[in-house]
Amino acid sequence: MRICFIGDSFVNGVGDDEALGWRGRVTAAALKAGLDITAYDLGIRRNTSADILARWEAEATARLPEGFPHRLLFAFGTNDCADDGRGKPRLTLAQTLANAETILARAKTLAPTLMIGPAPILDDGAADARIAELEAVLGRLCDRLGIPFLPVLDFLQQADAWTQGAARGDGTHPDAGGYALLARHILAWPACRSWLGLDPTTEGHQR
Amino acid sequence: MRICFIGDSFVNGVGDDEALGWRGRVTAAALKAGLDITAYDLGIRRNTSADILARWEAEATARLPEGFPHRLLFAFGTNDCADDGRGKPRLTLAQTLANAETILARAKTLAPTLMIGPAPILDDGAADARIAELEAVLGRLCDRLGIPFLPVLDFLQQADAWTQGAARGDGTHPDAGGYALLARHILAWPACRSWLGLDPTTEGHQR
After folding, report:
1. How far are the Cα atoms of A41, A142, A143, A146, A205 from residue A113, in angstroms, in the given order?
2. Contact by Cβ (8 Å): A23, A176
3. How does strand A113-116 pair with strand A2-7?
4. Pick from A101, A107, A108, A106: which is nearest to A137 by CA?
5. Cα(A156)–Cα(B191) distance, rounded to whole angstroms?
6. In this structure, are residues B2 and B63 in contact, taking their beta carbons and an 8 Å threshold?
7. What are the angstrom distances between the C-alpha of A25 and each of A120, A180, A181, B118, B189?
8. Which residues in chain A land under pLDDT 50?
9. A58 and B62: CB-CB below 8 Å?
């Protein structure tokens, strides 16, 4: 199975000295469970949904040869909501929604697709309020498209392992402990387990 | 610093249940040494030099924004020499050399560039003989272009940690132990230490 993880700095794992992030930890868990997967990290720092729209399909299709099962996972939105330096978001909610619909509607014709909601910025409350609004809108879009969506904003804002790591770092990106927490959260999501082909229960995985 | 690691399955780390490969281990070592780097994995399974020529510049430039120091590292050639299913290499030596010159001559105008030579296939002696010939030719090309080149064929063919891992796996790709060995070998290469901005001696790194 070939998997493309497409998104921003949180997909890349910025802040994690282990160079894994949640993506690497989810991949390692799947490999250690015996799954035959090859995972591609297509997370780029500061990418908005517009940046991802411009590149994702060429990058993904170069990594998804015929003859293998394919999977796509998207995680973006935080940068869309970030301050553009003049007190406004880098993209409007309407722009993000239009980009997300174009990306996801195409993605689901290519491979089983998941979406992880945007992570908080933490040190910018106005931006995090925009992220909360975006999370709800992306959730409804994914529902309409039949794409499983995992909101993570509240979970991460309330998780010491995430927020304390960010506080020790650049204020936004967690360290290894935060990414390990998010990896466990994603691996416990039934839609992700089914998408990967893991046992349906986390108990099965943890044995 | 933004670094793009561009190449094939060995760059991606296929076979490593830790989801790191040598690339992730080199990145983690640099991060733990306190370097401020963001590393991008642009290794794709089965990619030849022709596949890399077609994609590398668009993928790298999307990851190398202005205002940051950039680094490029290439590692390819094994797939060029692999059997095409009819007893011939997938690309001729002349084709690989032409592709490599086009890639590397452009790369060095964009960022300080390194090249790691092709890894062995191990379970195909005729292909490995072609890889030995290619390694020498790529080394001379890199010399002419002023790009540091690290040959690894003999080192890996003679390393139990590499060959025994491959024998336990698919015959070609090592497991975590083999990648850890190659990561240490690359981290001990003075040209890589200088390129990353690490202490010039491995003793300094290992403290």
Report:
1. 15, 10, 12, 9, 21
2. no
3. unpaired
4. A101
5. 41
6. yes
7. 20, 7, 10, 28, 29
8. 204-207
9. no
Instruction: Please judge whether B46 and A65 are an interchain contact, meaning their C-beta atoms are less than 8 angstroms apart.
Output: yes
Residue B203 pLDDT exceeds 90: no
Cα pseudo-dihedral A51, A57, A63, A64, rounded to 10: 150
Q: How far apart are CA A157 and CA A169, in angstroms?
A: 15
Other C-beta atoms closer than 10 Å to the C-beta of A67 total 5
| Predicted structure pTM score | 0.97
Q: What secondary structure, in 3-state letters, does B99-119 show?
A: HHHHHHHHHHHHCCEEEECCC
Tell me if B14 and A38 make a contact (CB, 8 A cut-off): yes
Residue A123: Cβ within 10 Å count: 12
pLDDT digit string (tens) for A65-75?
999 999 999 99
A67 and B45 Cβ atoms separated by less than 8 Å: no
Q: Which of B10, B14, B20, B36 to mutate to test the interface with A (most CBs of A within 10 A)?
A: B20
Nearest-CA distance from B19 to chain A in Å?
5
